[in-house]
Amino acid sequence: MNWEVLLGGSEFHEKNMDRSMFDRDFDRIIFSHPFRKLQDKTQVHPLPEHDFVHNRLTHSLEVSSVGRSLGRGVGSKILDRHPKLKTQFSASDLGVITASAALAHDIGNPPFGHSGEDAISDYFLANKDLLESSFKEQQWFDLVNFEGNAQGFRLLNKSGYQGLRLTAPTLAAFTKYPRPSKVSDNFKPRRSQKKYGYYYTEGEIFKSLAADLQLRALAEHQWVRHPLAFLVEAADDICYHIIDLEDGCNLGLVSHEETVELYAEVIGDRFNRKKLNAINSKAEQIGLLRALAIGELIAQCETLFLDNEAAILDGSYDTSLTDEISAEPALLDIKKVSIDKIYRSRNVVEIEAAGFNVLNGLLEAFVPAALNIGQMNKRQSVAFRLLPADVKLELKSSESTYESLRALLDYISGLTDSNAMSLYRKLMGISLPGMR
User: Fold this and answer.
1) Any idea what DSSP says for residue 226?
2) Which domain of life is it from (predicted)?
3) Which of 95, 406, 412, 417 could form a disulfide with 71 if both were Cys (CB 3.0 to 4.6 A apart)?
């Protein structure tokens, strides 16, 4: 693979433009309807009771900011190494591509965090005997393994969502897992093959994308990552390790002293306890350490990427950057504390329980209606009428059972936490018009 093709060449950028097509990608994502919905989707903790706790929107903005820094830092060195690229691109272009892909990285996540993904998958697994025979093997694997990354790729390519029409480099940088749900060989332990990145319905779209950018093929329907996808992944890893810990400290789940020590382990020689203690506010202390930790991790990831540029371009390097930087042991310590004290805290478990119950209830109501268009019973007909007009139209015009369920899952996974809960209450008779 080579950078000129990977960045799309002159097709996607002209140096004399005030606003490049990569800038346009960023703008289109940030103004899109699916992106705005992230403001009411759980990151880790329930939102209304606490200030300064992250939701999917604030998390995505922060990941995008880190991604921009990574892309620019790497980009300046890449352009120095490959001077011919400077006639078409700037370091800022690589920063914007990475920032755009990072901005959209959670756009396909359903309500209630990762428990929402599990709830959707579990519904189809529980109804395997009734449903499986209606689908091709690849389609069934999509349904029983709901994947936010693949859902995001679908939304970014779905014309109904304002026709984003993003550039190929941005779409490829977004795709951390360039493979479908069912493959004959997972190429373990390749990081890019750990999950999947597109559904059956978008298979041809990704195949064309891979051909345009000349991504190296591992096997039929499996490719190596676009190099900038490593930076998008690193930006996400950095933010959720460092910022989830900050949230845990602010909520009292992890002590201030333990948080300081965990951040100090990441920061290393730059940690100065005397300067830290000169700050009166404990919240400001944590904010400073968070910033220093993120800066240190950005620097380490940039160095590792550049040291492995050749291996990344030939596809032989396929590991998460944060798994190989010198701060990896410190990140592992943070992860252990986060699992024990944050991700398993009572309020997080309550969100997981709600996610399973709410999404299962919605699927039980709407899937039978979607599968029986034209011959619905009265209960299914009532549920169908609760769907938005555009969703009903898409269901009626779907050419297969699989496409009908994909359209329905676009709607359900696109609900915010509040919308999903409100709709569930109405379906269950817990909330009626006029009731308080």
Assistant:
1) P
2) Bacteria
3) 95
Q: Give CATH for domain 3-227.
A: 1.10.3210.10
Top-tier CATH class for 233-241+254-339: mainly alpha
Q: Which of 143, 328, 120 is nearest to 234 (CA)?
A: 328
The label of the residue with tokens 């944590």 reads: 286
Q: If you count them, how many residues does the chain have?
A: 436
Q: State the greatest distance between any 2 C-alpha atoms of the chain, in Å, as a whole number.
A: 73
pLDDT digit string, tens, across residues 397-407: 988 999 999 99
Question: 87 in the Ramachandran plot: left (φ > 0), alpha (ψ -120 to 50) or beta?
Answer: alpha
Could you tell me the residue ranges of all domains in the chain? Answer: 3-227, 233-241+254-339, 347-428
Distance CA 139, CA 181 (A): 9
- At residue 207, the pLDDT reads 95
Of 186, 178, 228, 184, the residue nearest 203 (C-alpha): 178
Pairwise CA distance, residues 284 & 297, whole Å: 20
Q: Which residue has tokens 């941005």?
A: 170
pLDDT in tens, 313-357: 999 999 999 999 999 999 999 999 988 888 777 777 777 788 888
* Cβ atoms < 10 Å from Cβ of 433: 5
